[in-house]
Write the structure tokens for this entry.
Amino acid sequence: MYSVKEPDGGTPRRVSEQLITLEIDGVRVVVPAGTSVMRAAAGIDRRIPKLCATDTLEAFGSCRLCLVEIEGRRGYPASCTTLVESGMKVRTQSEKLAKLRRGTMELYISDHPLDCLTCPANGNCELQEMAGVVGLREVRYADDGENHLNVVKDESNPYFTFDPSKCIVCSRCVRACEETQGTFALTVLGRGFDSKISPGNQDFLSSECVSCGACVQACPTATLMEKSVVDKGQPDHSIVTTCAYCGVGCSFRAEMKGSEVVRMLPNKDGRANHGHSCVKGRFAWGYATHPDRIKKPMIRRSITEAWREVSWEEAIGYAASEFRRIQAKYGRGAVGGITSSRCSNEETFLVQKLVRAAFGNNNVDTCARVCHSPTGYGLKTTLGESAGTQNFDSVQDADVIVVIGANPTEAHPVFASQMKRRLREGAKLIVIDPRRIDLVRMPHVEASYHLQLLPGTNVALMNALAHVVVIEGLHDEEFVRRRCEPAAYEKWKAFICEERNSPEAMESITGVPAAEVRGAARLYATGGNAAIYYGLGVTEHSQGSTMVMGIANLAMVTGNLGRPGVGVNPLRGQNNVQGSCDMGSFPHELPGYRHVSDPVVRASFEQDWGVELEPEPGLRIPNMFDAALDGSFKGLYVQGEDIAQSDPDTKHVTRALESMECIVVQDLFVNETAKFAHVFLPGSSFLEKDGTFTNAERRISRVRKVMPPLAGLSDWEVTVALSAALGYPMHYDHPSQIMDEIARLTPTFSGVSYEKIDRLGSIQWPCNDKAPEGTPVMHEDEFVRGKGRFVVTGYVPTDERTSRKFPLLLTTGRILTQYNVGAQTRRTANVAWHHEDRLEIHPHDAEQRGIRDGDWVGVQSRAGETTLRASLTERVQPGVVYTTFHHPESGANVVTTENADWATSCPEYKVTAVQVKPAAEPSMWQKRFGEQQRAQIDLLPGHGRS
Amino acid sequence: MDAHKLVKMVNGIAAFFEADPDRNAVMESVAGHLKRFWDPRMRREIVRFVDEQGGEGLKEIALLAIRTHRDKLL
């Protein structure tokens, strides 16, 4: 259940222009039509007793506790399922009602353990509370009757227990799993006295439960209870903060005892998540205090030496002196920095400021390079801003939802639950993905079209869709004429109408039947409000930017922009990847996406920072590696990013890292990149710092410190210290001052402040004079660039082709329970669900190669080879294989290549030609990796040689 | 910087802008993209490769773009 202090109106809030006036206990009440009597009463502080009702779920009317008397009506209706009517007169209390409620409670308690004082829910149990509220004084039913007091607990789930002996079968958990999460993993088995909650006649861990915690939250008793609360007791205070995992950016209440987290509860007021969560944010926060955390700075002169623990002063001083030595020897451009989405807006802003003002160059880049940089390029070119156009709530107004190259039930689960809610209401779904993702067909959700294209053919398919729309006259000519550049439109229209872009011409390229493409195009163009959601299956391609522009073209030509329910929605993967881009952590752009060559923009920063800035673009991450091997880039400051694991062509990356003279890694753990580092600066988790994150809907939310930084300094303080040691002091007492500077220098952020964020809860940028409270939906009256710009998107096949030697195409993705390189989630109990990366292969391809489910297989590309266990599945089509990359020993990036998006150098992770064959032993790379792992552990203080 | 890698990158850029039938516009766009997004050492290297080795492997339009806008790139 929620912490006690959260008010619960009993049934969901309704919004209506029609207002109803009624009388409750003699008090005149006015509420929107559709409001329940229970909620109307709660509004005037008449809290009608309840057990099966809660305001996050639709009313059910089963507990029979919330009965009321209504003048002129017979009987005692349940107030949760009774809607208000004009002139209604309600009594919430009477002698008869009191007797009925006591009787009901007596029945509940007759089959419930009387162990309140030792129960983990003691003091925070709705059943206990209701027993007190109704004045229960005795339970007359015999002790020797049948009961459920000895039913065995299910402790299979690593995070919560299920104790059926305490269950009152209110079905809140079942309804939470249906309505909130949309997984339908729970049911009520049996009838009457035999009724019991069941996760499908198996234990929770084996079931379809995705461990989102919605049932635990909804449970009014101790039946479903966090193990952390069982162990530690009830929390005594809570602090609102923001999740550090994916780009949904869920708002949480960190429930604490002192400075120890007891549990993370999703915040009902969170505008992105509305009180819901997933297994990662809800439960997998233990990595923050994992024994692997490095708490002291370390240095070493070479990467084969043991690490030496030193003071902060010595580590920072050494790093600064090395950077200056390298610059003196190799030139100003020989050093740079890489930021990540792990860190806050303020911290990323400081790193790019350090690189520009202290290093004196623009060699700063961020993790978006390898994921959504094509989004930045593509949407800026077509619409004028490097960000998605809508808020998440917009999906509730969509009639047609298109999901391209994304797997939201795995990678954006809380948003996916919102999307599924809309789909259950009747919105249509088109999925464009080489793999049959869960969303194609799952409980109460089925895609109208699954266009299962071959990897690398996105643009061909997108052009075919647009071709149908224009040729069949399904486009919105009026919108285009009013909102888009005419010359660019005419050029694009002439191109898209060419026969070579027809579904029939493209069928042999994409592998998608022309009739399916035509059907999907017609549905998108004529089905009402149509919204496109896309992920890395769009961007991580050699034509990633082209595809983003193709998506924008399609949205513009059908008029699906500028209002709720439509739009182009990049599902940014990480908690602050949007923010790290917004903060100008790019070699070519200052904060707010303004080019470094712009003299007016540059002058504003020069004036504020008191230093002249470089007008030429710097090195992107892949270019840093090439320049390192070339001998012109020798020093790197990496904050929160593990490039040795996450970047493609691992051997190339590690050769580049080995060739550098000073790598400074600032992170929580000794990761793959740290093995090549000379300075390790212990980082701070999201629980240990103040700041802000910006999620995929441009929503800036507060991150609040709930415990002191384990290593003594927050990440932003480390960067300030390093900058000072480099001779460029920065003066901040608190991250709010950094945000004030960001607002001062960045027009889209000019109205942002911590005071405003605290007042509003969160703010979606742009937030300025034109939009003082932020901008949920962009491009409403005009595009940011004025008129939308159509761009010709010719299909150019990738260089990565299958051949006799490499006849299969490998594509990659993510799984719900692990997160990216796994640095956080591998250090939590989430390994119970995904302890290894596997290769998905179609049974036909497997049979041809003599591979059975669970066999070890070698995956070889022109870049390298690794070994994984195989999983046979028809999710992938013949000719396509798939894997995840959450475990470093899997070596997924040993086989990915240097191919990249033409515009942004975003790696083409999604298309690699491979061969797969049975393997008797790990690959050479994996053997060396294992040796290196052991060697590096020996170099840590307290181990082996150190 | 590995010139052959740079060649591949320029060819990818040219392949996108080639959709424009106006060749001058294509050359302008290719050179403009390099100027906007490439570190000077990368631009110097590709110009050197064209000057000293004739730009072997470059698409014709890409080669022309670099030669025509050489001064802008340096």
Observations:
- Chain A touches chain B at residues 333, 363, 491, 495, 542, 545-546, 587-588, 595, 597, 616-620, 623, 626-627, 629-630, 632, 792-794, 796, 799, 898, 900, 902-905 (CB under 8 Å).
- Residues 312-330 of chain A form the longest helix (19 residues).
- Residues 655 and 864 of chain A are 14 Å apart (CA to CA).
- Chain A is about 30% helix and 15% strand.
